[in-house]
Amino acid sequence: MTTSPIAPPIDTLGYALALGGASLFSTKGIFVKLALAEGISIESTLALRMLVALPVYLVILVSLLQRNGQLRTLLTPSKVLATMGVGILGYYVSSYLDFAGLAFVSAQYERLVLFTYPFFVLLFGVWFFGDRMNWRLLPAMFISYGGLLVIFTWNMSIRPQGLFIGTALVLGSAITFAFYQHLARRQMLILGSALFTCIGMSTAAALAIAQSLIVDGPQAYAGFSPSVWLIGLTLGIFCTVLPSFLLNTAIARIGPRGTSSTASFGPIITITLAVLILGEDFTLVHAVGTAMVLLGSWLFAHRESASRAEPS
Question: Which residues form the EamA domain (predicted)?
Answer without folding.
Answer: 13-152, 165-300
